[in-house]
Every structure is written in C-alpha cells, then in structure tokens.
Amino acid sequence: MKGFIAKILGAALLVAVAFRAFGAEKVTFEAHSPLTVAVGEAFRVEFALNASPDDGSFKAPSFEGFDVIAGPAESRGQSVQIVGSTMTKSINYTITYVLLPQSAGNVTIGAAEIAVDGTTYRTQPLPIEIVNEGDASRAQPRSSGGDGDSDESTRQQSVQQQIGKDDILLRAVVSQTSVYKNEPLHVAFKLYTRVPYANIVPESAPSFNGFWSQDLTDPNTARVGRETYNGKVYETRVLFEYLLYPQQVGTLSIDPVDITVVAQVVVQSRRNFDPFFGSGHEVYNVPRKVKSQQASIEVKPLPEGAPSSFSGAVGSFRMDTDLPTDRFAANSGATCTVKISGTGNLTFVQAPKLTLPASFEQYNVKTTESINTSASGISGYRQFEYPFIARAEGTYEIAPIEFTYFDLKRRQYVTLRSRPMTFEITPDTKGGTGSAVVMQGRGMSKEEVKMLGEDIRFIRLGTPQLRAARRPFLFSGGYWVALCGILVLFAGVYAALRKQIRESQNVALMRGKRANKVAVQRFRAAKGYMEAQDRHAFYEEMLRALWGYMSDKFNIPVANLTKENVREELSKRGVSSEEAHRFTAIISQCDEAQYSPAASARMSDVYSEGVDLISRIESVIKR
Question: In whole angstroms, how large is the CA radius of gyration of the chain?
C-alpha cells in the first residue's frame, strides 16, 4: 500500500514539473520569406508559432501586391524530450502561403495575428524586394566547367563576383545628429546583408571620444530583423549598441568600426556530378571586410542664465522631499530626504544644497539609487539623506531645497523647490550640552553661541560628600572566576597547539592519517570518469587510489611498492590473507583492463569492490 501511494505521489510530482516546464516556454510568432524574388517567380511565406493557437484566431495579412496561388496550409508537430529530471516539450505550428509577385518594386507583407490562451501575438512586417528576372540572376548558383588550376582560379573569381559591393554593409545608426550637452543619444552598429554568412570577426572595437558611454549590447540576445535601405531589402543584425552622453561642446565624431564577414556562396560543380541526382554544389567561404561610416554629432551648449542650483542635470525629473517635524529637542538627530526621479543623466545628478544654521551639526550625505539603462536613456531615481543635529534651542527659518534641471522638451531650465522649513528647537530635557552655553558677547544671536562640552562643569562649592556609585569589579568574586576561566582556556589551547605541532612534525603519522581522505577524493574522480565512460582514465585513477592509499598508510614510496610487500604489511597489521589477495587481484584487474578492450559495464564492479576493500582495511588497521 505504501509503495502504491509513493508511485501516485511520484507521478503527480512528475506531472506538476512537466506542466511547469511547459508553461515556462516563451511564445514566439515569426514570419519567414526570401529577401529577393523575381517577377513571375512563386515563393513561400511561412508563419511559425511554437505553441498551440486558439481555434480560428489566425488572421492573415492582405498580401497586397501578390497573388495567392496556394494556402493557407497548416502543419502541426510536437516533441517531448526528457534529460535527467528536466522535461522539455516543443510545439511547432506553421501556416504556409505560396505567393506570386505582380510587379517589380519593394513590397511589404503586413503583420499576421494569432492568439494563444487569449493573448494576441503579431509578426514583424516583411519587406521583400521584387526584381526583374535578369537582375535576380546574380543571386542564383553558377556552374563552371574545366579542370586544373586555371579552372579553380576562374571559379574563385566567379564566386567573388557573386557578392556585390552593397550586399554586405555596416552602418552606425544614431538616433539624432544634433543634441545638447549631456543629452542622451543612441548608436547601434548594424550589419546589413543580402547573402548568407557563416561568421563575423570584429577587427576593432567602438571608441567614443568626448562621450560618456554605456554598453547596451546583450550577447545572449541577437537583435535581427529586415529593413529596406537605398531601395534594397536587407537582413539586419545589431552587433554593438551604446547609449552616449556628450561631455564636450562642438562637433564630435564616432569612429568607424571594422569587421570581417565570412559570406557563403553556393556554386554548382561538375566535379561532383551524379548520374542520378544531377550536378552537385560547392559552398565557398568568402571573407569580406566592411567598415562603418564616421558619424558626426553636433553638440550644442546649454543656454546661458542657469540658476545657481543647476549642477548639470539634463532630462525630465521630479523631486520628492521628506522633511522632519517642525518641533524637536536640542541635541536630537533629524534627517531631510530628497528623492530625484525621472529620465535623463541620473548618473551625473548631484545632491541639492541644504543650508543649515551654524548651530546645526550636519553630517555626510547618504546616497542611494536605482538606475535602469535602456536605448531611450537612463531612468530611475537617486535619493539623498541629510542627517543633522540641532545643538541650540530656538526658532530657525531654513531656506527651501532647490534642484534645477534643463528640460529637453521645453528647452528651458526648470527649478523644483521644497516647502520652506521652520524648526522650533526646544531645550534638552535630558541635561545634554544644549543647556550649558556661554555667551561670547552682548547682542549675539543663538547661531553665535558656543556650546560647552560634557567635560566642562562649574566648580561645586561646600563640603563634598563622595560615595561609590557601585562596587568595583576588580578583585571581586566574578573577577577571580573570570580569571580562572581564562587560564584554563589558555592551557587547553596551548596543549592543542603543541599536539598539532608534534603531529605535523611526524610526516609518517600525518600521511597515515590522511591516507583514507586522499583515497576517497581519488575514488570520486574515478567515479566521474566511470559516468563519462572514459575507461582508460577510470582504471588509471583507480590504480592511483589503491597504490596511493598503501603508500600513505605504510609510509612507503609508490615506486618501492610491490604486491608482495603490500601483502606483508597488511598481514602485520592484522588484515586477513584473503583481503590481501583481493587487493592484489584488483590491482591486476585494473592493470589489465586499462589497456584491454574490456566492457565498460565492469567498471562499476571494480569501483564498488575497490571502495569496499579500502573501507574494510581501514577499519581493521584502526583497531
């Protein structure tokens, strides 16, 4: 009954894990089509979904500029893969159309829609370049005949000619070319291709002189797409992405970036001719170096007449303040908190100035922040805390806290202010230093009063009456108990250290004590080789574990160990002759299996027998 219940619980747990794994997969809906097609040439457009859609939820685009000659054709498939305790389910749902272009030009297939569990997903629009049949011939595979070096040279030239000058481009795409100082701009180094490629090799890294830069490149996410540039359709890929803040005024340049793109060209070949299947194909890797253009950015200075509270903040911000109560006692601590939040150059935002009277003791400002960086700029907040202590009683008027930033939308300075603060400081009821003051002259304000420290008191007149506030700890009962405990602890620590030093000086004793520990570590390594089915490494590590254990245990170098003297040493320490023979048998078995084609299934038996034998020998020797 218990076994049956355990099976039910295990099955339920497996189903829960499976549903969790299925639900964690991200839904994607993508469209695929050729970049370039010829007039009168039919081609396929596929809409691929990695989930099960809601019934009847698919909405096809209008396909304006094309004739639909077939479709929609639906195909479904799914697979389940279990690796260890991880279960992965893959669902493929594809809708295919066959289209025929009506005329030459650039036509965009609109976005398709589909719903999964009530959520609507859309594909990206697909620009397609439709060319006349003669213009599309360059993209088709070419054949070349003949033999020898001249034929190979001709073939190489033909392959090179199939890649046009504008088939691979690298562009530095900037969000804007005219900005104010400290206004953010986005730059992406984007690769444009009209031919397939196998690899991308960067030759130089981006450099931004005069800019503060933030790298936005995500190596785990490839931002690919399709764009129309100079009348041609390209596959695009973002290689590098940065957020820039200009720190200088004038014309700044973004230096070019060099990369090498290894393009792939498919060419028909007569050398691989097959009488049944026809001509074969050869794939050539053609390296092509490309460089981005030099981008110039005009950086304008901020307008003149900035308020004194402006410290370089540019963007759109909000200021929230948390001020202390208006009434508190002298020598009490209080804190003003200012939070600047919004979008802009938050990294450069400085703490606004808080002006306090001279009798207030102000401490260092504490700063906390939460900043998020994206292509549109930096957003989040910076929070400043101003701790202080009021030392003298009275009423004080504190000027409002001001923060000024340059608003990019309104193109003007904006000043944010807190409310004015009025603090009423009452006398210190705890008898602190706030009640002992000395006036330095007549007509002075409270800000000019100097405070006396607690170590300065008036001389007391009259007969003193002194008495002990409490019994001293020195020479008391607790003092002697603590002293005895410290001496006992010191003696114990001293004895333990002396024992450790003696044992460390006895090398043979230390090796014998750590023999079993070293053998266990080597057995773990052998188990790893066994699980990896590395037979040679497994038996080699087993030999090291067995011989090494005997060497450390008996303080005999491994080079001097033999099966005979091992049996003698084991016999001296009370190990039975049967166990000694078993040890030599395992050694012989490992020596033979290390270089013989023995089945890998025997490794588990050798491993179990070796570990068990060392455990029994260790228990006998320790008696």
Answer: 41
The DSSP secondary-structure symbol of 433 reads: G
The pTM of this model reads 0.55
Mean pLDDT by 10 residues, the chain (623 residues): 56 50 66 78 81 82 79 78 69 82 79 87 83 56 45 64 84 91 91 89 87 85 84 89 91 91 76 53 83 92 90 92 87 89 90 88 90 86 91 87 92 91 83 45 43 48 63 78 91 85 61 75 86 84 85 79 81 81 84 64 80 83 68
User: Rounded to an integer, what distance in angstroms lies between the CA atom of residue 502 and that of residue 518?
Assistant: 22
Cβ-based neighbours of 226, under 8 Å, separated by 6 or more: 35, 124, 126, 127, 233, 234, 235, 236
Distance CA 402, CA 309 (A): 6
Q: Say if residue 153 is in the same domain as residue 291.
A: yes
Residue in 335, 305, 339, 323 with CA at minimum distance from that of residue 400: 323
d(CA 262, CA 290): 11
Q: What is the CATH number of the domain that holds 29?
A: 2.60.40.10
- What b-and-e string marks burial along 507-539, b requiring 16 or more CB atoms within 10 Å of the CB? eeeeeeeebbebbeebbeebbebbeeebbebbb
What is the phi-psi region of residue 507: left when phi exceeds 0, alpha when psi lies from -120 to 50, beta otherwise? Answer: alpha
* CATH number (domain holding residue 341): 2.60.40
Q: Based on DSSP, count helices (H) and strands (E) in the chain, helices before strands.
A: 9, 33
Q: Which element (helix H / strand E) includes 238?
A: strand 232-246
Kindly state the tokens that stand for 64: 């304006």
Identify the CA nearest to 111 among candidates 98, 126, 101: 126
What is the number of structural domains in the chain?
4
Residues 520, 585 within the same domain = yes
Q: Which domain holds residue 129?
A: 25-137
Last residue of a domain, one of 269, 298, 327: 298
